[in-house]
Design brief:
Oligomer: single chain
CATH topology of one domain: Rossmann fold
Mean pLDDT: 92
Number of helices: 12
Largest sheet: 4 strands, parallel
Order of helices and strands: EHHHHEHEHEHEHHEHEHEH
CATH architecture of one domain: 3-Layer(aba) Sandwich
CATH class of one domain: Alpha Beta
Structural class: alpha/beta
Low-confidence stretches: 1-5, 381-390
Strand content: 5-15%
Shape: globular
Radius of gyration: 21 Å
């Protein structure tokens, strides 16, 4: 999309890799879930009921190890390009916590950080909540006006994110077709399911919205439209004639609250009833194999497929794929004075997305909080020299 607002390149002295975080032992599970659900008044008994996927994995979420690996991959890519920017890592819900990381960064002499998150799409939980967490951390630590934190654009359609999915989907589709051929049913119907995290319908409809620059999106949601556009871009390269659909997983809200549907397991049952013999599941909403991927897809969806006698293969996430690491560094270079990359590639007509979010984008229905990287925001946008940034 031409004409998308961008920020002037700036001088940064560090990169903040920000993520969700996860428990790293059985004793961490309930404290972690308390962090995730804080403010909702959910008792520990209920949290224990929903902890089974962590408990089954030894109380360990894979996300922290994956973030350590991604941090190392980013450091290697930066070093290969001769870019002397340290990579700091902070989590929203588990150690290392973002406020402590920001305080440590300031004490170490950092004055302007550029944040890269492990969420590619536009929604409250995948963009605004990160910006709020930084804004609140700067306020709570007394660093607002002393430490500036900006954020790279949402990168759902950046080639570094999309191309690993193209490669993985092609391999998985070939595997399923080969499995069906080996079973004596060559050419049997196969369906590609692009899976992402379900979110409340209200949040989906607020995603990407702007009070000053309205845009129309497929299914009235930037979150949904972005996934559909990326899935279409993937299949245009893999097999334009192959049938596919977008499905959702990991719903965690109250039954009476509308969330995005269909659930992947419901979709699998409908496909099997309609004569589909094999499925490829592509975790399009995830940058790496989070617990939601390991449990909801590799366990539950795989088991559902086995019950329905569907050939099944799950495509990989970008994780530490060389193209993904290089793409994240390209996103950093878009915003830096040194090593600047002026071109902003996008593989759909929805992007490139905004560097600075529009007012009201991905609204927080639980109340306004200070947030960085939004037009009109003053939190975290004061440079070391004392000048305010637009």
């Amino acid at each position: 999309m031409s004409g998308a607002p961008v920020s002037a390149p700036a001088e940064y002295d560090g990169i903040l890799l920000a993520s969700f975080g996860g428990p790293e032992g059985q004793e961490d599970v309930i404290p972690f879930l308390r962090n995730v659900t804080r403010g909702r008044g959910i008792p520990d008994e209920r949290l224990e009921e929903v902890s089974h996927h962590y408990r089954a994995n030894g109380g360990i979420s894979p996300i922290n190890a994956q973030n350590r690996a991604l941090k190392a991959a980013l450091e290697a890519e930066l070093a290969a390009r001769g870019i002397a920017l340290p990579v700091l890592w902070g989590n929203r819900n588990w150690d290392p916590y973002i406020p402590a990381v920001l305080k440590g960064a300031y004490d170490a002499g950092h004055r302007r950080l550029l944040m890269v998150t492990t969420s590619a799409y536009s929604s409250y939980s995948s963009c605004r909540q990160y910006r709020e967490d930084i804004g609140m951390a700067l306020t709570e630590t007394g660093l607002d006006g002393l430490l500036a934190v900006d954020k790279v654009r949402q990168y759902f359609d950046h080639p570094g994110f999309v191309e690993p999915f193209i490669e993985g989907t092609a391999v998985s589709l070939a595997r399923v077709r080969a499995e069906l051929a080996a079973a004596g049913t060559p050419g049997a119907p196969v369906h590609v399911l692009f899976a992402t995290h379900s979110i409340p319908t209200r949040d989906a409809e607020a995603s990407g919205r702007s009070v000053e620059q309205p845009r129309e999106f497929a299914e009235n949601s930037a979150y949904v439209a972005q996934h559909l556009a990326v899935a279409d871009a993937v299949m245009a390269e893999v097999d334009p004639g192959q049938e596919w659909s977008l499905v959702y997983q990991s719903r965690s809200g109250a039954p009476h609250v509308p969330w995005l549907e269909p659930d992947i397991n419901d979709a699998l049952r409908e496909l099997a009833a309609a004569g589909t013999k094999g499925v490829v599941v592509v975790p399009l909403g995830f940058v790496s194999d989070h617990m939601e991927v390991l449990w909801d897809l590799d366990t539950e969806a795989r088991e559902t497929s086995a019950e329905l006698e569907l050939a099944f293969d799950r495509a990989p996430t970008p994780s530490t794929h060389a193209k993904f690491a290089a793409g994240l560094v390209d996103l950093v270079c878009e915003r830096t004075v040194a090593h600047n990359v002026a071109e902003r590639p996008a593989m759909t007509t929805l992007g490139p997305w905004y560097d600075v979010c529009r007012p009201g984008c991905c609204a927080n229905f639980r109340g306004d909080k200070p947030a960085i990287a939004e037009v009109g925001s003053t939190v975290g946008l004061v440079s070391a020299a004392g000048g305010a940034r637009p």
